[in-house]
Design goal:
Number of domains: 3
Shape: globular
Largest sheet: 7 strands, mixed
CATH topology of the largest domain: Purple Acid Phosphatase, chain A, domain 2
Oligomer: single chain
Amino acid sequence: MQTTHWKRTVSALAVLTAVGLALAACGGGDDAPTFKPLELNVAHINDHHSQLDAFAATELTLDGVATQVELGGFARQTALFKSLAGTKNLLKIHAGDANTGTLYYTFFKGKVDAQMMNTICFDAFTPGNHEFDDGDATLKGFLDELAQGTCKTSVISSNVRPATGTALAPTGGAPYLKPWVIKEVDGVKVGLIGITIAGKTTNSSRPLATTVFSDEVASAQKAIDELKAQGVRHIVAITHQGYDLDKAMAAKLTDVDVIIGGDSHSLLGDFKAVGVTSSSGPYPTVATNKNGDPVCIGQAWEYSKAMGLMNVQFNEAGAVKSCGGKATLVVGDQFKRKDATGAWQTVSGTVRTTLIANLAANQPLVKVVTPDATATATLKTYSDQVAAEKAKPIGTATQALCLVRTPGESTNRSAGTAGCETANTLAQGSDIAQVVAESFLSAAKRADFALQNAGGVRVPLAAKPLNMNDAFTVLPFTNVLVELELTGKEVVAALEDATANYLDLAQSNGSHPYAAGLRWDLDMSKAKGQRFTNVQVRNKTTGAWTAIDPAKTYVLVTNDFIASGKDGYTTLGTAFNAGRYVNTYLLYTQSFVDYVLAKGSIGRPARTDYSHQNVITATGVKLP
């Protein structure tokens, strides 16, 4: 006889009576409970990173023709979410990293993001690692703003526990973070649990030392068990830990049905028909939980560019019967195409009308959306204040400077930027991280070489005139440059630390190193200590490259974040804590701005100056 944890304890007589009835009715079958079949629809975004304006001149392939569109824009997201108002059993979810990435955050520290999110009214929000970039107190301010008005978005994370008496857990007040929340959908209880990536947040952001980040899987299972004890059968996990960890987590948890994720900026679905070739997997991705039941996994790319809409059908056993849906790219209604001379020209008249009609009828992965008027007005209050600063010109990018974290990664983070179509497949890796490192080396006059972690550089740059906004979008944090005195042996150890952080320790691949004045061969299929070979230093006077001397002391300039040992750079942290550094107090964004201003124009460095010379991936593939 099978019993379940959803049933309340009954008297022994009632149990015996139920057993007898069950045996009489079904000839000895089990008494597994039945549930009301449920259809659940989940609309979701993640990782909008203060990217509230649309991305102009983004190239897609529409009706088989290269076409420039205006992609994303938070006011379009608002309009799209509002268009779903009549959708049956709809939940609206944000899977974290609302903050950090543009001047909207630099100047207003999440206030604008919260107000824009409240034009959608999310049912639940799980903080991501970047919500902690400026500490618990700044996150509190963002959440205070999110709590204004009538939306009352639930903020949930089951594995984050701030200390009592701190900003997020005020003495005598309600804690800002709850482990889970229960929503009633069509008369059925649905449990939403939150998960914030632990190691990455403590290593790569700035939470209080007293704020505890617990194991993600154990915390999720604890929350699920608590919900089950209250009679909740349907569980949606809202996670900010990355697509691969979501898939791995699904197999380790009992009773999880849906995982809506963020952090890895994963585009799920097949977008080749519209010219976007980088996809991390199908939408939805269907995994299997510890019970052997299906789990529906979704993620919706980044920067307000896309929205995911998942449909989940539950059977009478309370398990997932099926899941479907798609992620949709959100675009404006103005288009450009190349004329006979190769110049981009605005499409108008019948061509434009036909294009819009064809998208509506034949291309479900791209949706033309008019920005919501209320959201547009809300944003304008702040955009007018930053427009003058954003518009200040600083120079020109003569070539597209593509964004890559680890060479050979599956996701093309520069998708839509002309000239970056295959950037993630090349050994050289990130152009923009390379140029940023060169700007640091230029700013630090006594440094022999410069180091920058991949995750600290946020967006690619198209070939175009550059302004202050471009600089603060590429480098949005408040870091300063630090000069460390290190032996050659320590420098190589720091490089090994950076890749071991994600290859061995399953932390953020944002730690991946890029350097100016320093180059190497990298084999990610090897063990730690054997990955970096042929490490060379460029002479700042002659430009000649020579092998690094393990015993010689060099000066390395980098941002204060990794200099202090964050992102897994333990060797740098050891030197930093020993006082072997000089703080230049040069703001790293301003150093980049000064570099561009001095040069007038920037492009890709010579291939021989890239930090990555030869690269073999973790699976043993040699990259071109």
